[in-house]
Cysteine desulfurase
Amino acid sequence: MNETAFSGQSFQAELGSRALFPDLETRVYLNHASLSPPSSAVREAVLRAMDGYAHKGMAWYVEAMESRDRLRAQLARLMSAPVEDLALIANTTAGILDVALSLPWRRGDRVLLLEGEFPTNITPWQQAARRHGLELLWMQAEDFRLDRERALERLETELRLGIRLVAMSAVQFTTGQRMPLETVGALCRQHGAEFFVDAIQALGIVPIDVEAMGIHYLSAGSHKWLMGPEGLGCLYVHPDAAERLEPNVAGWLSHTDAFAFLTEGAGHLRYDRPFQHGARMVESGTFNTLGACGLEASIGLIEQLGVARILEHVQAWHDAIEPELIQRGFESARMPDADGRSGTLSLHPPGPAPDWARQLARRGISCASPDGWLRLSPSWPNSIEEVPIVLAAVDEIMAKGLGNP
Ligand SMILES: Cc1ncc(COP(=O)(O)O)c(C=O)c1O
């Protein structure tokens, strides 16, 4: 048995079991695409880190550094990347800003964005555009769901006209549409564009292979499908792309041998040390150790189960509820092909989605309503036995009327 062990305690994840979430008050938790509750493994790891500092102060920092190294290796495995191409960052936004601020832009460079994306993957590019005179081009994320072939044709046309960078999410936060990263990445490579992926809605729930997908940059945060604490994330930078980045966001920890002046005696306090190579350049200052310990514990559980098995489990959950909801008048956004599906099942309900989310919350069911969709996002702890509970709540809401308590 491949267990995750911390300070003598061990935790075993089981598909469909909430045993590691003993205090979760929500009856059915369908909100992993928003924020995941911490498992016992995460809670224990964070407490252990806090206790480590409480008992040993600075002497515990070495253990924190080791946890960070293990975490980088775990994240690298999750996206099939070499560990040296990966940095730990504060959140998805930070990784996007790091790249947007560090690319040697030329005036008039064209950047292709998707309308309908979460703003995290828009605002930093808008700021870079304002500062460097870039041209932003827009396509509709929904076009990739409703007519994928035509959307890819349009993308290729734009690439032929010259695009510096394409930025998109691996999974759309509204509809759960898994984007055709492999095809887009190949097109970008073919036409000399760089490819940036926001993977917070994918990492830990759908397989990601940065090399096979032709990804140059990938940024993701910890608190959704990775089920770690907030305030932590990772940035992948392909070695070719790393060559291009300027050290515009570098800080004291970006230098090689950054600690030498603290540990090696006099004569090492210098400001001209070279910067760490590649992605690690963006690890610029003191870091969220508690979060890293928690995330390491959470990914340990995900690795026990395997991303492919978690996705399969979640698809079975979606399979069980989707036809029932369609029969009740809901319109599903789910992609017909398996490779377009993710952990999120989104639907247009009969009536306003926020009202549905509120009514379901009153009945102990947690879900979200981004941009008018009712978003159900179960993960590995969700059981198929929850499906009839959700359907009973839906029937009750329909019988009483959405406006009634
Ligand atoms: C696609 C996507 N990107 C990014 C974020 C969050 O970005 P950050 O980690 O910077 O808060 C979210 C949700 O909060 C999201 O759905």
